[in-house]
Amino acid sequence: MRVLNPSAHADGTDRTLAYLLLAPTMAVLLSLTIYPLIYSIRISLQGESGNWTLQNFARLFTDQFFLSALAHTFVYAAVALTLEFLIGLALALLLDTQIRGRGLFRALLLLPMMLPPVVVGVVWRLMLNSNFGAVNGTLKRIGVNTEALAWTASPKLAMASVIAADVWQWTPFVFLILLAGLQAIPQEPYEAALIDGSSRWQTFLHVTLPLLKPAILIALLLRTMDLLRVFDQIFILTEGGPGFATETASLYIYRTAFRFSNFGYAAAMSFVLLAITNVISVGYIRLLQTRVSEARS
Amino acid sequence: MNYKPTRLTKYVLLFTLTLATLAPIYWMITISFKREVDQFAVPPRWFWFAPTLEHYLDAFVVRSFGQYLINSLVVAIGSTVCALVLGTLAAYSLARFRLPGNLDRKLALWILSTRMFPAIVTAVPLFLIMRDLRLVNTRLSLIIVYTSFNLPFVVWMMRGFFAEVPRDLEEAAMVDGDSRLGALWRVVLPLVTPGLAATAVFCLIVSWNEFLFALVLTQTDDAMTLPVGIAGRVTQYGIKWGVMSAAAVVAMVPILAFAMSVQKYLVRGLSLGAVKG
Question: Which residues in chain B are contacts of A127 at CB distance < 8 A?
Answer without folding.
Answer: 24, 27
